[in-house]
Structure prediction request, 492 residues.
Amino acid sequence: MDRVGHLVMNQPPSNKMTVEFFSEMEALKEVIVGSSKLKAIIISGRGRHFSSGADLDELLLEITHHQDAEPFLTSNYAAIHYVETLPLPVISAIRGVCLGSALELALFSHFRFCSEEAVFGLPETTFNLIPGMGGIQRFASLSGKARALELILTGRTFDAQTALELGIVDAIWPKKELVERAIAFAHQLPERYSMALRKVYVSRYAMRDTGNTIRDSEI
Amino acid sequence: MNTKNLWTSRQNSERFFKMQRIIERNDLIKWEIKDGIGILTISNPPENYLYEPEFVPLDTLQSWTADPTLKGILIHGKGKHFSAGGDLKRLFELVSENQNLEAKMAAGAVVLDHLNSTDLPLVAAIHGVCFGGGLEIALSCHIRVAAENSLFATPETGHGLLPGMGGTVWLPATVGKAHALQMILSGDMISTEEASMIGLIDFIVPRKEVFTYSFNLLKRMTKNLHSQVIKSVIKALRNTEMLPPEQAIAEETRIFCELAREESFRRLSESDT
Prediction:
């Protein structure tokens, strides 16, 4: 299946998002933007899980060692947020656990499909933290304020069926077929989908950001 | 009796009535704190009409919510209903008494703003009727739990008015423009099921369990958390509504750093001991 890019989080078993992960993600941006032949990107985790999220010990260490930790975190945010702005469909194929920052990454993709045994959660508050990379915003816009608040404050995990009901995932597929079906899904998207997606993205987010209208020719 | 005396006696009687009203008003909203959850009871049964747009005096509310151990606020109605909203008779009285209605309405909105500015999770436990100003109070909460067989409406337009305490802003933000317009213009009542379908309420529970469910929900959400973490989440959530996305994210990052620093100090001091 050429023309579909596979972005695999490759630090099994938990595929923790380390400092190294974020810098590799950042470096990948150029590669992805540069490959004009890509039709879609599928994000998945190697092995049993999508990812358990950020490496908390490492993260706290980095933050205490930085005089000014905000630029550090902002660059982490930028390193995963760009997938949302790509002019091609980005699909997260989620097996196993998908927690914290990993769920935030998944929320930046345009489509999320998961297997029946997938487990989701934003457990940050149980570590006296909050979801810090757009999770609150994206979760609330999909599930509504009430459920977002409930799940973020309790920090409890929830299953695939609940994720579907909340609108956090778009479909549940059998584990063994998950990636193949995600690829098939990408292929059945119309050729002009990317262009349309770009426009939808621009109208949903960019215009709200700047208050300016971006003309078609600029897209 | 000279005119001066007449004047003072009138003043006195006005003062007397004013005092009586303040006493009445204070009785209309009750407050208690149980297990760190503040319980605000609209207590003017049976309909639980709101005496004035400023349904509880701001300074009273401020003193109630100043308790630093507070982790959440539950709002409910005493008796059969949540609240039928503003007392129209009283409202038109205010107008005929030449009182500044606009200032009164604004004061009502300030009370709701104050509840939001506590950065605590707000849950409305709704049963029976939830109309007009009552619905606006519920809309200012983060979570609305409703009993089966509750009724919701914004009947203001039927009296030549409109929802004036933020309802025209918060209703469309919650249920979308189309449903909000339909509710506001028609003034029609909708059932719990319909309210749930359009996203006006978040949880449906049997009538007898509304209060307990809401109370336990708040407890479940807050029991293991420092108030600073709770307030940070609420603040971040509000930012997503009030600020442009990029600014909201920047704020989220800033708050995260603040908490992360404290958490690492906490871990360090724990490992030292």
